[in-house]
Structures are given as C-alpha cells and as structure tokens.
Amino acid sequence: MAGSVSQSASVPHVASNADSTSPASALSAAADCKTLAKKAIAALPPELSAQANDPKRKTRSQDPGWQFGWWPDTIKKDFVQCVFCKKIVPSGIKRFKQHLAGGFGDTMKCARVLEVVSKEMHTYLRRNMRVVITADGDEGEEEGEQIDVGPLPSSGTKTKQAKKQIA
Q1: Residue 106 lies inside a defined structural domain of this protein
Q2: What is the pLDDT of residues 102-134, one digit of tens each?
Q3: Residue 130 DSSP SS3
Q4: How many structural domains compose the chain?
Q5: Separation between Cα atoms, residue 143 and residue 153, nearest integer Å
Q6: Which among 63, 70, 112, 166 could disulfide-bond with 84, CB atoms 3.0 to 4.6 Å apart, if both were Cys?
Q7: Helices and strands in the chain, H and E counts
Q8: In a domain, 10, yes or no
Q9: In whole angstroms, what is the distance from residue 69 CA to residue 81 CA?
Q10: In sequence order, what are the residues at sequence separation of 6 or more whose Cβ sits closer than 8 angstroms to the Cβ of residue 121?
Q11: For residue 151, how many C-alpha atoms fall within 13 Å in the half-sphere facing its CB?
C-alpha cells in the first residue's frame, strides 16, 4: 500500500501538444500545466505544500509563473520558490520563469521541470519580451542631424546628472 501512495504522489510524465498551434491544443496544454502544478504541490512535504497553497504567498496576477512558485517569505517578495526542485530563486517572477524555461544566462534551468511547462514558460517569455527599436545611422544623418535614442533620465536624475557634469 505504501508503494502505491508514493507512485501516485510523484509527478507523471505527460505527452506534450505544445508543438501544435491550434487553440484547442493550447487550452489543453494550459489545463495540463494546471494539473501538473497541483500534482507537484501535492508531492511536496506537508509544510511546503501548505505554503504553496497559501493565497497570501501568491499574487493575484494571471501570470503563468505563479502556478509553479510561491513566496517562501511574505516580506521578501523578490524571492520565489520552485514547486518542482524547491529552489528559492531571487530577483522576482521573471527570473523564476527563466529558471523554469532554461536557456537564459541569468539562471540555472530547473532539473525537475517537465518539458510541457518549460516550453510554455519559454513561449510566454518570448511573446512578452520588450523590443528595443533603434534608429539606423544611415537614416538619421540627413543634413548632419543625429538622433540620440538613449534612455532618458527620470525626473530627479536629470538635474543630478547636470550637477555632476558641472562639477
């Protein structure tokens, strides 16, 4: 009887439909990820499972990363703990999603994450990536004018930077 309990608590391998692009397969993949998250939380030790199910340790965001992680300390909200490997990932939910997806230089990929979850996080990160538009040098040099596309300082730093240049 004890052997059957440990087998049911482990996270099963699920075949992935992530390669197909139909809306029905996307919905089923999302449903698969939700059930995988619930099964992974059920496989955790009781104290971690209680933390993972505590609504105070998750945000009200619809971000898919919160299905697989929670705040281990409610005061330090930059740290997110992984459901699969129990690792505490610093620097917020984006870094945590990179931990699940893998392939990013800032984080180590989770060793226990399933391929379905990894692909979902990777596509989510790629889809929501900010694109920086820069002006080409050939287009902006008409009549000797140059376009500076650099970041503009916020309200208080502009005056501080001007004081530094004078000094």
Answers
A1: yes
A2: 988 888 999 999 899 999 999 999 998 887 777
A3: coil
A4: 1
A5: 27
A6: 112
A7: 6, 3
A8: no
A9: 5
A10: 64, 65, 97, 98, 100, 101
A11: 5
Average pLDDT along the chain:
75
Residue 76 pLDDT exceeds 80: yes
25-38 pLDDT, tens per residue?
444 555 677 788 88
For residue 161, what pLDDT is reported? Answer: 74
Q: Pairing mode, if any, of strands 80-82 and 88-89? A: antiparallel
d(CA 83, CA 91): 17
Residue 142 lies in a domain: no
Domain-embedded: residue 162: no
- C-alpha to C-alpha distance for 85 and 89, rounded to whole angstroms: 11
Q: Give the domain range for residue 96.
A: 20-127
Tell me the whole-structure pTM to 2 decimals.
0.59
Burial 136-155 (b: 16+ CB within 10 A, else e): eeeeeeeeeeeeeeeeeeee
Q: What is the amino acid identity at position 84?
A: F
